[in-house]
Specification:
It is a single chain. It is elongated, with a radius of gyration of 31 Å. It is mainly α and 799 residues long. Among the domains are: 250 residues, Orthogonal Bundle (Clc chloride channel), CATH 1.10.3080.10; 161 residues, CBS-domain. The protein contains 30 helices and 13 strands. The protein has a four-stranded mixed sheet. The protein has a four-stranded mixed sheet with strand order 4-6-7-10. Strands 5-8-9 form a three-stranded mixed sheet. Belongs to the chloride channel (TC 2.A.49) family. It holds the Pfam family CBS. It is found in: Endosome membrane; Membrane. This is Chloride channel protein.
Length: 799
């Protein structure tokens, strides 16, 4: 049973309409205790609406804000926004100017989305162009313009032929430029050394900039973004310095050749843009709940420009990162993703009039018999995801708990050196990971010069260019298979040690590369099996001799989706991102089969994706909506104080002095205090936040005459009876939450967890017949869930 104890003239949480609107947004499924909640808010409605922070005639500064590493109060933020909107609506009828201001307020959300899309798209385009140039800089330089990449340099040359399109006089490797040699052992060794030196320089610059200017610019950013969107405060994580340093260092680390991608960090960059623009509008800057609506849309814009997938970006924000996603946020996310994709398309960083580098067009349909290898790739993706998560978390935990974590620069330099030394001899690890995936996805046409397309052609073949039949593999294909196998093992191992270092590091592209390499090898195997054994029963019905039956690039695409799904546990958004990424709309069924299989297999070994695992590793207070709690414990088993602990620290309604309260605040670190009638009765009155008590007392001392340490502090409507010579009392009723959420001591924890998850509570009070027994905070809930799952409850470090 959910109960609430209210007094008349409740000014804490607004009216019934505000609460009902909030709950209709937040509840994705009905709760069994809604009637009691309705009675609570109905009682609140009787009291009218008031200003939560107005303890004097005017609000004093900083009330309503939150301290660093604390959770916001979703209900209060929603109530404040409802009050603000009601005030604007009532004022709009007074004059034309107020009506115009109300229109500007209504349109401010769309303006913020427009600005986010423009800046996120521009930054993504600049990053793509810079990465393209700096990646090629490791191998050589353009003589006509040093800022040209290899491809751009050869575009501008009039001496480039189609057969030798990768070779042109204007582009010179470092051996040609320094010692005037292009072939031979000395030229190879010099190019090898220059490749390693450039990689080390880029990595050193990146880790140094992050360490000195913006420590929050490291990592993927998605685990922290998920935590922030759930209501957690991390000051500076979305700041201007973080935006600047992450943008610059992202170019450096991707260009260094490390096994990481830019897609995850681009979500962080886009959310930094969203935080910057939301600070320009008071509607969002003064309300943490509204700010998170903007950040959800910004995350969608980030995925939109990372993959050129605006619809997939919206679904990614909904499925993977957002905690509170009302319908209007869906529309605005779609608009922000649209603007961001349009801006990136206008910049055209890849020079192919596409949003992405991987765009492919296959000319052969898939057949039902191929579902079996597609499902096998899904199994591989699930196993790879499980292996990666367990190994990477174990390594990151070792980094946090040993001396290894004290030397982040050295770690980055060592991993970069090992990566560059091993990567250079193999052409599939030397090139950028995005180019590798693009090559693996491509279908082998008549004009392809890749080793993967070195098939033995029939000299009598007279078929259209787009309809080349299956052919026996040549020497180049077998060589490429060995190189891909070695590259696959190398990528699997090195990515485990790379992700989580103190540099920007995304996981999408390395995961896709692992799956694409495995998929391409499986695809070539199936293709050769079908060519040499077309009379087998599994091939007889759909693969006739001389037909183009199997597309190895499709297997690479399915493998990439399977591995990415195994690591992140995405399903719907993953499939949409993949078909937007490649243009392969008719291959949705293979992608769906692989994504679902990889999730099933990975979930069999553990429910956590890589981002949830890192959230738990860092001890963030993230209450995942996907988690299930089925244990038969009660609120009394979790509440504090427990047996043997000191009694609960409380405030009385009219008998404590200012000095008593200041002493209590100084001696404890609690976020707030229940207010009771007296210590004898323990009858609950309300709840006062620690930060607002501190600010109220400080402000009262400065602005109210007669407030001294011996002043009685009271939370009632009328002051208590005091002797004639007593100092002036301090009334703090306006900062008191008169309708705190309460549960009885016999409420099942399954219900309590549901309340915390769906209403975003910071704490709820435990009572019996109106008498206060204890308190349950979000940290208590998370620690209890960890304990029930046989995990370390002390790993939850924040509230």
């Amino acid at each position: 049973m959910l109960t609430n104890f209210l007094l008349p003239e409740n000014r804490a949480h607004g009216s019934y309409s505000a609460m009902s609107a909030w709950m209709s947004f937040f509840h994705r499924q009905p709760l069994v205790f809604l009637p009691d909640v309705t009675s609570m808010v109905s009682a609140a409605a009787m009291s009218g609406s008031g200003n939560l922070m107005d303890f004097l005639d005017e609000p004093f500064p900083d009330v309503g804000t939150y301290e660093d590493f604390h959770t916001i109060d979703w209900l209060r933020e929603k109530s404040r926004d409802t009050d603000r909107h009601r005030k604007i609506t009532s004022k709009s009828k007074e004059s034309v100017w107020e009506f115009i201001k109300s229109l500007l307020d209504a349109w401010s959300g769309w303006v913020v989305m427009l600005l986010i899309g423009l800046l996120a798209g521009t930054l993504a385009g600049v990053i793509d162009l810079a990465v393209d140039w700096m990646t090629d800089l490791k191998e050589g330089v353009c003589l006509s313009a040093f800022w040209y990449s290899h491809e751009q340099c050869c575009w501008t040359s009039n001496e480039t032929t189609f057969e030798d399109r990768d070779k042109c006089p204007l582009w010179q490797k470092w051996s040609e430029l320094l010692v005037n040699q292009s072939e031979g052992a000395s030229a190879y060794i010099l190019n090898y050394l220059m490749y390693i030196l450039w990689a080390l320089l880029f990595a050193f610059l990146a880790v140094s900039l992050v360490r000195v200017f913006a420590p929050y610019a490291c990592g993927s950013g998605i685990p922290e973004i998920k935590t922030i969107l759930s209501g957690f405060i991390i000051r500076g994580y979305l700041g201007k310095w973080t935006l600047l340093i992450k943008t610059v260092t992202l170019v450096l680390v991707v260009s260094s050749g490390l096994s990481l991608g830019k897609e995850g960090p681009l979500v962080h960059v886009a959310c930094c843009c969203g935080n910057f623009f939301s600070s320009l509008f008071s509607k969002y800057s003064k309300n943490e709940g509204k700010r998170r609506e903007v950040l959800s849309a910004a995350a969608a814009a980030g995925v939109s420009v990372a993959f050129g997938a605006p619809i997939g970006g919206v679904l990614f924000s909904l499925e993977e990162v957002s905690y509170y996603f009302p319908l209007k946020t869906l529309w605005r996310s779609f608009f922000a993703a649209l603007v961001a994709a349009f801006t990136l398309r206008s910049i055209n960083p890849f020079g192919n009039s596409r949003l992405v580098l991987f765009y492919v067009e296959y000319h052969t349909p898939w057949y039902m018999a191929e579902l079996f290898p597609f499902i096998l790739l899904g199994v591989f993706g699930g196993l790879w995801g499980t292996l990666f998560i367990r190994c990477n978390i174990a390594w990151c935990r070792r980094r946090k708990t040993t001396k290894l974590g004290k030397y982040p620069v050295l770690e980055v330099i060592v991993v970069t050196a090992i990566t560059a030394i091993i990567a250079y001899p193999n052409p599939y690890t030397r090139q950028s990971t995005s180019e590798l995936i693009s090559e693996l996805f491509n279908d082998c046409g008549a004009l392809e010069s890749s080793q993967l397309c070195d098939y033995i052609n029939d000299p009598n073949m007279t078929r259209p260019v787009d309809d080349i039949p299956d052919r026996p593999a040549g020497v180049g294909v077998y060589t490429a298979m060995w190189q891909l196998a070695l590259a696959l093992v190398f990528k699997i191992v090195i990515t485990i040690f790379t992700f989580g270092m103190k540099i920007p590091s995304g996981l999408f592209i390395p995961s896709m590369a692992v799956g694409a390499m495995a998929g391409r090898m499986v695809g070539i195997g199936v293709e050769q099996l079908a060519y040499h054994h077309h009379d087998w029963i599994i091939f007889r019905n759909w693969c006739r001799p001389g037909a183009d039956c199997v597309t190895p690039g499709l297997y690479a695409m399915v493998g990439a989706a399977a591995c990415l799904g195994g690591v992140t546990r995405m399903t719907v958004s993953l499939v949409v991102i993949m078909f937007e990424l490649t243009g392969g709309l008719e291959y949705i069924v293979p992608l769906m089969a692989a994504a679902v299989t990889s999730k099933w297999v990975a979930d069999a070994f553990g429910k956590e994706g890589i981002y949830e695992a890192h959230i738990h590793l860092n001890g963030y207070p993230f209450l995942d909506v996907k988690d299930e709690f089925t244990h038969r414990t009660l609120a009394t088993d979790v509440m504090r104080p427990r047996r043997g602990e000191p009694p609960l620290s409380v405030l009385t309604q009219d008998s404590m002095t200012v000095e008593d309260v200041e002493t209590l605040i100084k001696e404890t670190d609690y976020n707030g205090f229940p207010v009771v009638v007296s210590r004898d009765s323990e009858r609950l009155i309300g709840f006062a936040q620690r930060r607002e008590l501190i600010l109220a007392i400080k402000n009262a001392r400065q602005r109210q005459e007669g407030i001294v340490s011996n002043s009685i502090m009271y939370f009632t409507e009328e002051p208590p009876e005091l002797p004639a010579n007593s100092p002036h009392p301090l009334k703090l009723r306006r900062i008191l939450n008169l309708s705190p959420f309460t549960v009885t001591d016999h409420t099942p924890m399954e219900t309590v967890v549901d309340i915390f998850r769906k209403l975003g509570l910071r704490q709820c009070l435990v009572t019996r017949s109106g008498r206060l027994l204890g308190i349950i905070t979000k940290k208590d809930v998370l620690r209890h869930m960890a304990q029930m799952a046989n995990q370390d409850p002390e790993s939850i470090m924040f509230n």
